[in-house]
C-alpha cells in the first residue's frame, strides 16, 4: 500500500469537511452533538490549506494530517481517515513517521484525542504515548523517544 502526503489546496475544502463528518462525526456527536451550521462555520474559520497535508493511499484521497512543528516539539493537531482506510495501518504508519522525526530532532511528539475516541487512544498507547492530562472532553498524550 502506497501512502503519500500532498499539500492541500483551497479546492480540498469540501473533501476535508466531508472527511471530518465521516471520520469524527460520531465522536463530535457524542460530545457536543452535531450541529451542521456550527460545524460548517468551525470548518470555514479553521480551514487553512497551508497547514494541511492530504493523505493519499494508492493515489486516492484518504485523509488529512495537520502537524505543527514548534520550537519545543512536534504537535499532531489532527489526523483523520475516511472509514474505509481506518484500521488498515495507515494512521499508525504516519504516526510512527512523526515519532521518528521527533526522535531525530530530540523533541517530544504530543497530541490530544477526544475521550470518547477509545480506538485512537488505544492506537496511541500501543505506539508508546503516555497520558499527560485529561479533562471531560480531551486526553493529552505525549511520547519522548531518545535517539
TrEMBL record:
It holds the Pfam family FR47. Gene3D superfamilies: 3.40.630.30. Signal peptide: none annotated. It is an enzyme of class 2 (transferase). It comes from the Bacteria. Residues 3-146 form the N-acetyltransferase domain. This is GNAT family N-acetyltransferase. One of its GO terms (molecular function) is acyltransferase activity. Keywords: Acyltransferase, Transferase. The keyword Iron-sulfur does not apply. Its EC number is 2.3.1.-. The keyword Iron does not apply. PROSITE patterns: GNAT.
Amino acid at each position: 500500500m502506497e501512502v503519500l502526503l500532498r499539500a492541500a489546496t483551497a479546492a480540498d475544502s469540501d473533501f476535508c469537511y466531508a472527511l471530518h463528518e465521516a471520520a469524527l462525526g460520531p465522536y463530535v456527536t457524542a460530545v457536543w452533538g452535531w450541529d451542521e451550521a456550527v460545524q460548517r462555520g468551525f470548518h470555514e474559520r479553521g480551514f487553512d490549506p497551508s497547514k494541511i497535508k492530504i493523505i493519499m493511499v494508492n493515489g486516492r484521497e484518504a485523509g488529512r494530517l495537520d502537524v505543527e512543528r514548534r520550537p519545543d516539539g512536534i504537535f499532531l493537531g489532527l489526523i483523520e481517515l475516511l472509514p474505509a482506510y481506518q484500521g488498515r495501518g495507515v494512521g499508525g504508519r504516519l504516526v510512527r513517521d512523526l515519532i521518528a522525526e521527533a526522535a531525530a530532532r530530540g523533541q517530544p511528539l504530543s497530541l490530544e484525542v477526544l475521550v470518547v475516541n477509545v480506538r485512537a487512544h488505544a492506537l496511541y498507547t500501543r505506539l508508546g504515548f503516555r497520558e499527560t492530562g485529561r479533562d471531560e472532553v480531551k486526553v493529552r498524550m505525549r511520547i519522548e523517544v531518545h535517539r
